[in-house]
Structure formats: C-alpha cells, structure tokens
Predict the 3D structure of the following.
Amino acid sequence: SLPAYPLVKLPSKPITNLHYHNVFEIGYCYSGSGECMSTSGKTTFKKGDATLFLPFQAHYSKSDETNQSTWHFSYFDICEVFNDAGFNASFWDEFVQNNTFLSGIINNDIYPNICGLIKQIIDVSRGNEKNKLTKCRALIILLLLTASENCKSSDDISHGIYNKRITQLLPALKYIKANYQKNITVSSLADICCMSVSSFRQNFSKEIGMSPQEFLISTRFRYAKYYLENTENTLRDICNNCGFSDMSSFYRLFIKRFNLSPNEYRKQFSQKTII
C-alpha cells in the first residue's frame, strides 16, 4: 500500500506535457532546485520543499539545468491504505472527495509542518520498523487534515485544489481500477455514472485528458509494468491478468507505448538502482 522507490534524479529537459496518477503522490526534495508545472500554473521548488498531488491532478516537475534535484516519492490509495480493522476507508475516501486541499509544491518556508509530515511518511514507509503501516496511516490522516485546514485558511491558491468535477466520473474510474482485467465497454461505464454515452465520453476526455478506452489501456499497462518490475510472473500470465486479449496484442501495444519489449523492460528495470 505504501511502496518505497529509489532516490529519483529529476531531469532538466523542458516540460512538454503533464501527467497524473489515480492515487495520491507525495514527495520530498533532498537537494537541488527546479520548477513544477500543473493546471494551476508554474511553481519553483528547492531543497526541503515537498509535493502533495491528489488523484488525477495533472502535473510535471523538472530540475534546474545547473542544480539537479533529487527526490523520494511515495504513492498511496486512500481506500487501500485504510482498508483494515479500526480504519474507516469509505470515510476518508469521501473526505478527500468533499474537501479542498493545499497541494502541488509545498514550500517549506511557509508550511514546514506539512513538509515535515510528508518526509516522515516517506521515511517510515522506506524503513523496516515495527508497525510502520499503522504509523503511516496515522501520519497520512494528520497530513490530510493539515493540508485541508491550510487550504481553507490560505490566500495562496496557486497550489491548486481537488478537481470536484472528477467526482461525477469517480464511479467509472473506480470500476476500471477494480475490473481492468475484464472486458469493459464505454456504455457500461456511462451507465455506472448515470450519463449518456456521448456526454460521458465528452466529460471523461475533458477531465481526464484521454478517452475512456485509452484510460483503460493505460491502467492495464500500469499493472503490467508493476508485475514486470515486482514479480517473476510469466509474460502470458501478465497478459491474461491485465486484460489483454492475446500475447500478440500485448507485445505490439507495449512496444508501441514504451519503445521496448516487455522482456527488455523487465531486464532494464532490474538493472536500475537510481532512476
């Protein structure tokens, strides 16, 4: 639920397009400086600053050409993190949907408490101490409450807020995430959201930045990459488990998207120590 990733060195190449995740992203800058582009505009960052991006909040970050930045990132899904006895996953899921948050680049000079919480979560998730998931849960709750309270009391809106319009599409997004390995039609997703097919297509493309079918394929590839990176599953098993119709399509689409075969991707990833 809280994967630990190696230290990331952000490149300094120009920002040409934004990306997003269907989960929370947090990060802490250990050195260097740079800038982040999001739907709210451009923001600079430096050592000690942090990031907090909500699901489907588009963004992209780069280092300054003369001062490369290094980061640790972590990603988590609210429902998965709190899906355990003693934690109300649906409450926190609704809390995220119904509140606004200070997000984007978090300036350590202005919000040292939030940056400190993000660093704590990342440090604990990367460690091996006892009950680390319980500690991370408590820290995440504190982070959500603090980020929400600061957004309501701050005049600085450049960090962006949660896109409320995504809420209407959440039933379809959640269904895709839970059933990506199945045959899913656009009409069935429209029905889940109580929308016509044409209205659903239009709203989905506008808010998510791609068609429903392309989002489904992207989701399948995210899980395929996860299996390639973290398991020894055969390519046929990965193909079947991720909803691809056959091995030929899986290979062809993978190469088209990533410019290398699944086997080459697995070998390349296993050789990486620093991204």
User: Anything to note?
Assistant: The chain has a mean pLDDT of 84. The chain has eleven helices and eight strands. The radius of gyration is 19 Å. The beta strands are 8-9, 24-31, 33-38, 41-46, 50-53, 59-63, 70-76, 104-106.
